[in-house]
Amino acid sequence: MTLLVRAFRASDLDPLVELSLRSWEPVFTAWRAALGERIYRLAFPDWRPTQAAAVRSACEANATTSVVAELDGAVVGFAVVVLGEPDDVGTRAADLEMIAVDPAAQRQGIGRRLVDASVAIMREAGCRYANVWTGGDEGHAPARALYESEGFTPLPVVHYYRAL
């Protein structure tokens, strides 16, 4: 088994969109359970096209700071880094904007390698700290475990929904 983490290429886009939809299926299933059918259908009537467009947009807008994981030559994951501008005192931050690993390739250290490669990009750019946002639902539990094992500190945030 050969794992390679490399720079994003435009030809990666379609495989990344496909694997991201498979990867995030449990998230939207968890959100459906948490929100109930009525609010879920109002907030996320068809999440796949919206999520596919978000992946395409993030990868294209941040092509030079996106990384791709290949396992035995097959694209199995990606991460998108967004570099911030220095603030008033010169501190620069970065966001781990998006990360996904194909469900068939999960639990093999690929997410960890993508986080490590992303942090290296941030450090090289002179960033002093990194942000990553994720959900508190069961679908995001593996992501939270990864981020915490990589030294990220959670800040509890609550996002409420209500049907009108």
TrEMBL record:
Alphabetical list of InterPro entries matching this protein: Acyl_CoA_acyltransferase, GNAT_dom, MshD_Acetyltransferase
Positions of the N-acetyltransferase domain: 3-164
Highest taxon in the source lineage: Bacteria
Pfam short name (any one): Acetyltransf_1
Name by which UniProt lists this protein: GNAT family N-acetyltransferase
